[in-house]
Amino acid sequence: MSPAPETLDGWYALHDIRYIDWTGWKDLTPAQREEAVAEAQAFLAAAERVEDAPEGSSACYAVLGHKGDLLFLHFRPTLDALLALEQRLNRLALARFLRPATSFVSVVELSQHGAAARAAAGEAAPGGGGAPSPEDQAYLERRLKPKVPEMGYICFYPMSKRRGEQLNWYTLPPMERAELMKEHGLTGRKYAGKVIQVVTGAMGLDDWEWGVTLFSDDPLQFKKIVYEMRFDQVSAKYGLFGSFYVGRRLTPASLAEFLKV
Questions:
Q1: Strands 245-250, 57-63: parallel, antiparallel or unpaired by DSSP?
Q2: pTM, two decimal places
Q3: Could you read off the pLDDT of 144-179 as tens digits, one per residue?
């Protein structure tokens, strides 16, 4: 049996995508809409300031296309904190006009494919497997507890690894999995400074196995990085992908403009 690579797990994540009932929203009086918008702005501002938890990060995006209108993204230390945010949104006056499009519950994850491969081969970890340096610890903190970047655009998609009769990611030898993931990582590094990626694991939490969230000020970079990565063997042979959602960052102030009729 191939050993499962260990994962380092950080904050929980909720991608909450909603449709807006524009017809019902337009039927409100201007005063009713103004009051509902002010309440929604206060909710978003409080979530961005993380007033509800010791730590975390939140943002809202206007979704392009037919698959949704608003995407609320939250990172929090616990699932209970995410549930509280979801309930708080559902209590808003605006929520009367929000319809679920889809959602994704997961946890920020760093997979240790290389460590699993070394263990299967009976090799020691680099550095003797001692405690991480302060620099390494700071790096892990940033990766496992991500702050939503101040970038203009988001691209989110769920994915899984193939488990068919001919190709099965989970039966590959650990060293082969590690090499394939290393190749994939090298492709991603070409986009350093252009795209920030957060990978979240969802096994046992949602229908897909992982969620990939990309941030950039140039949405064309989403096409470029995803296209190039499709040629990596790990994607070309073993990747299964769900729907893609692309959105534009909304601040509390720009949320009012987005909801204007």
A1: antiparallel
A2: 0.88
A3: 999 999 999 999 999 999 988 788 888 888 888 889
